[in-house]
Specification:
globular, alpha+beta
């Protein structure tokens, strides 16, 4: 696939339905995990314009920063800490309408206002998370959860 995206604006569902096949085309046939994660976050950032989009990968007892788009980020996160660490510990997607109200929120940037974190689960184990931050309150909802979980499920995390 050419490295140009067709960006659709308007209805959130239509935006996801447009970008998902494009992400699939970008990663299909490419065996390199880092390249695929990088193109996935770049496509999501370009489509939605979110403040920060990236992956953290489980390495030993921490989440370690992976490919991302946005300002510099926290490099390592312990299990159970912040939204990402809690999503890892609970193995479930977390939607946080106001990060200031989340107990133990890790503020990599004071500009982040809301967040969604989707765990990457393979063979019953969380092996990473997709983290998306917005500079607007209450940015994410069940539509984002549904489609971001679909995207994460479709990625090949073989190293």
């Amino acid at each position: 696939m050419a490295e140009d995206l067709s960006i659709v604006k308007g209805d959130k569902t239509a935006e996801y339905q447009s970008i998902i096949p494009q992400i699939n085309a970008l990663v299909t046939g490419e065996p390199d995990l880092v390249a695929n994660l990088a193109n996935t976050v770049a496509a999501l950032k370009e489509q939605f314009g979110w403040f920060w989009v990236g992956f953290y990968l489980v390495k030993s007892d921490e989440l370690v920063l992976g490919p991302f788009q946005g300002p510099v980020a926290c490099t390592r996160i312990k299990k159970g800490r912040g939204v990402c660490g809690t999503s890892w510990a609970e193995a479930k997607t977390l939607i946080v309408p106001d990060v200031e109200a989340f107990p133990g929120h890790i503020a990599c940037s004071s500009l982040s206002k809301s967040e969604i974190v989707v765990p990457v689960i393979r063979n019953g184990q969380v092996i990473g998370v997709l983290d998306v931050d917005s500079d607007r309150l209450d940015q994410f909802d069940e539509t984002d959860k549904l489609f971001l979980e679909e995207i994460v499920a479709s990625l090949d995390f073989q190293v």
